[in-house]
Amino acid sequence: MASMITDKEILVLYYSQHGSVRQMAQLLARGVEQVPGVRARLRTVPKVSTTCEATEPAIPDEGAPYVELCDLEECMGIALGSPTRFGNMAAPMKYFWDGTSALWMKHALVGKPAALFTSSGTMHGGQESTLLTMMIPLLHHGMVIVGLPYSEPELTTTKQGGTPYGASHVAGISSDQPISEAEKKLCIALGKRLAQTALKLAQ
Known about the structure:
By secondary structure, this protein is of the alpha/beta class. It contains seven helices and seven strands, in the order βαβαββααβαβαβα. It has one domain (6-47, 56-202): 3-Layer(aba) Sandwich (Rossmann fold). Helix 1 crosses helix 7. It is globular.
């Protein structure tokens, strides 16, 4: 049985190659923890390799610990983040979700809220299709998708990232563009909305 602490946690699960998605995850976590009684649990996924002998260390060199299936089961909601890869989530994140059948079989995630975030190299680099396709495994798990409403003023004024499907960031071709103030506010707003929704659904 999950403890009282884990009952009030939101899992912020991400994969980040150059650091932008990790920074977004930290901003979402900040938004989650603006809601009294809710904490963020940051986790990441290991890289995948076409070389069978290649392995990742048991503990990442930097950033959050690797996710385990129990993290998804224990937390009351999930924020899922990945960089854009040709309009879809990165292979390491897809590989992880392909291995969640045990949770699907026992309906462990049914009714839990989820939110999405992504980063791309260009303004039209597939952010929205990435967010939409990331929803698909979550919908198969029976999760409730939480987006960004247009009541967030930055959504209508941003010249960078930001979509109603989730938070986004334009990192630049060299992944050297900092997260803008509007993008930061939308990440925090999404984390806060996810936590608030999770509390309501848990009542």
